[in-house]
Amino acid sequence: MRRPTADGLAVLLLLACTGAGASRKATNIDSDNSRSKPSQNLLTIKGKAFQIGTASWYGEEHDGKTTASGELFDMDDLTAAHRTLPLGTYVRVTNLDNGRAVTLRVNDRGPVDRGRIIDVSSTAARLLDFKSKGVQRVRLDLQVPVRR
């Protein structure tokens, strides 16, 4: 009997979070509503899952502390915290004000503020050009893992 791979499990979890690829009308979603759950805000268009909402960043105060994945947080790495996506998931984060985008690996749980959908590392916030602002409206696109 074959054992499921981590990639296979991540895909299954992703499908479960997005309604198994069920067709939904695409709409802009505002996850700033503190009563909404991020997993309920994932939408799919042609099998591609995405989420729109507010991002924040974290850095020095958490640098070197253990993340939910068990690794040490490095504020210079391209990582992020998300409440429901499987740890190890890659997500493309796009700043909706300027179009800048970066691909991050989810290695932690958060954000603490219920009105936000993702916390990114300080380096990611700098690359997305919202570090000085603190928060930014973004789009998350789940990335399909590349098999080697």
Report on the structure:
A hairpin with a 2-residue loop joins β1 (43-45) and β2. With 148 residues, this protein is an alpha+beta fold. The chain has a single domain (6-142), classed as RlpA-like domain (Barwin-like endoglucanases, Beta Barrel). Mean pLDDT is 79; it is low at 1-40. It has two helices and seven strands; from the N terminus they run αββββββαβ. It has helices spanning 6-17, 122-128, and strands at 43-45, 48-58, 79-81, 90-95, 101-108, 118-121, 135-142. A six-stranded mixed barrel has the order 2-6-3-5-4-7.
Overview in brief:
The chain is of the alpha+beta class and 148 residues long. It is built from two helices and seven strands, in the order H-E-E-E-E-E-E-H-E.
Q: What is the arithmetic mean of pLDDT?
A: 79
CATH class term = Mainly Beta
What's the domain count? 1
Structural class: alpha+beta
Helical content band: 10-25%
The CATH topology is given as Barwin-like endoglucanases
Report the order of strands and helices: HEEEEEEHE
Overall morphology: globular
pLDDT below 50 for ≥5 consecutive residues: which ranges? Answer: 1-40
Sheet bearing the most strands, described?
A: 6 strands, mixed, barrel
Strand content: 25-35%
Radius of gyration of CA atoms, rounded to a whole number: 15 Å
Helix tally equals: 2
Instruction: Name the CATH homologous superfamily.
Output: RlpA-like domain
Main β-sheet, spatial strand arrangement: 2-6-3-5-4-7
CATH architecture verdict: Beta Barrel
What is the CA-CA span between the terminal residues?
23 Å
The overall strand count is 7
